[in-house]
Each structure stands twice: as C-alpha cells, then as structure tokens.
Amino acid sequence: MAYSPYYTNGWQNGEEGGTPITAAAMNHMEGGVEDNAEAIDTLNSNVANLQNNRMYTPILSSNVSVSANGGTATVNNAGTYGFYELCYYSISGLRQTVCAPLVQTNIPVLVNTSTGAIGVMAVTRDNGVFTFTNNSSAAVTITNISGITNVSV
Q1: What are 72-87's pLDDT values in tens digits?
Q2: Fewest Cβ atoms nearer than 10 Å: which of 73, 86, 93, 106?
C-alpha cells in the first residue's frame, strides 16, 4: 500500500492550522503503525522461509588448495546457480572453517592470528568456472563450494 498523508498539506501548529490532534487523527496514525508492523512481520517470515528452503548442491569432490602469494586454483563445472556458498580456511591462520555467500570478488583471508593480519583471495567467475587467486601470505584450503537454489517461499 502506498503512503498517503492523512492531512495532505502536512500538520500545522495551532488551531488555525486546521490539523487538530483528535482521536480520529491519532487512531489513523496507530492504524498505519500497526499495518507497517504487520508488513514487517510478513517480510521477516518470507525471508526466513527463503533461508530455510534453500537447497545446497555440493560442487567440490575434494578440498582445493590455493598457495600463498599469487597462487591460483580453478574449480570447473560449478554449474550455473544464482548463488554460491564458499567454505575455506587459511593454513597459517585460524583452522576454523569460514562459510559465507560467494558474492564478492575479494575474500578476506586471516593470515596471522597474533597480529590479526588479513590478506585477500580474489575470485573471478565465468559461468560454471571459478578462478581463485590468493594474494595473501598464507595458503588457503577451500573445503566446499555449494550451489544454492531457493525452492519456494
């Protein structure tokens, strides 16, 4: 529903402004607040359904290593999904696996936990082919790439 003001010329100060604070005006505002709250609840529910109804299709059959300082790796036959999720970890950083939507072209790579240094792994995509170029000073292991499909709301 498009917004339309209750008083088309806006609220005016004083009785001469013609926009008195009345129960009708206040109830109208309350109704608008309630309608917006319901619309937000519906949107939140739709987003949750989209997230819960995703289908993940694993693409990698084994881990892919990308050596440090300009090393590259290519993943072929990744399919033509609209969205991908990448899971990876840095050898000299945390051994904790990070999984995130593969929507950016530069992925941060934790290089040294004591200094908190971050390097970058560049990603290019040409249809179903991903090329990873590791510009960080730490080797990176890609543990999984999944194609993501939303099946329904």
Answers
A1: 999 887 877 878 888 8
A2: 106
